[in-house]
Amino acid sequence: MQPLTLYVLDLSRPAGADPDAAIIRRQVGDAVLRTDDLGVTRGDGIFETILVHQGVAQAMDAHLDRFARSAAMMDLPAPERALWRRAVEVAAAEMAPLAPFAAVKFVMTRGVETEDIPTGFAYGFVPDDPAGARLDGIDVVLLDRGYRHDVTETSPWLLQGAKTLAYAVNKAALREAARRGAHDVIFVSSDGYVLEGPNSTLIARIDGVYITIPVALGVLPGTTQGDLFAALELAGAPTRVSELFPADLTTADALWLCSSTRGAAPIRSVDGAPVTVDREVTAMMNDALGARTT
Ligand code: PLP
């Protein structure tokens, strides 16, 4: 489905002014981006995709935190939090009558080369229905990301862990998974550390402990993983952030890839080796995500 309205942000206005005055409503098909915008020509920008449940954007603060973190990693101006929050709220509210679950994407690019003013916009859409993947489990393959596990320390200019607009590589990895007959990917560092999916965070349960990967390894801080760990901890389950290796995945009790639009998708095989799908915990996880009010 096409987005209904594009909410274009006037990022040239002084900070602190009325956010509503800086949000300009445009329609699909209107000219809103210059072809020489650096977001278009270089993928030089950042974005977030936030789940909308009954018109309310979920995990808003975690997404705004990550947006600010990505901006800092890219040397982009700090996003004005109140303005972006308002734009997401307005785009989310528009989705309420259209679908119980929808999403809002919000984007900030470096703008046009000579102007030094970022470009910003947000829009709502209905993502693909993830329910099938959640029930049956997904087949994943391990793919080498080509960077070492310490890339954020040695080479921060490679922007690992920033949510940049440059997702062509992530999409190419998903096409490679499809060529191998799988649904999704878990990236592994060139020196053998398990990382994340191209658009999801890994959660493994090993000997009853729920584990995710440290962001120091150049993975995104997952907002869905954050809320899932909070729910698991509330239910008394132990959680941990730690490094994992491919051999750990073969002995795991259960594995999930999680993301804002997909929720928690159980993994049923890794490189063809079967993994147990824990339907009960998967249902509990997705119920917890569905019960969020903010
Ligand atoms: N890792 C990457 C590379 C992603 O692109 C995403 C989301 O798109 C995630 C993890 C999961 O993040 P979230 O749960 O905040 O959607």
Automatic annotation (TrEMBL):
It comes from the Bacteria. One of its GO terms (molecular function) is lyase activity. Pfam families: Aminotran_4 (PF01063). Transmembrane segments: none annotated. InterPro entries: Aminotrans_IV, Aminotransferase-like, BCAT-like_C, BCAT-like_N, Class-IV_PLP-Dep_Aminotrnsfr. Keywords: Lyase. Gene3D superfamilies: 3.30.470.10, D-amino Acid Aminotransferase, subunit A, domain 2. Belongs to the class-IV pyridoxal-phosphate-dependent aminotransferase family. This is Aminodeoxychorismate lyase.
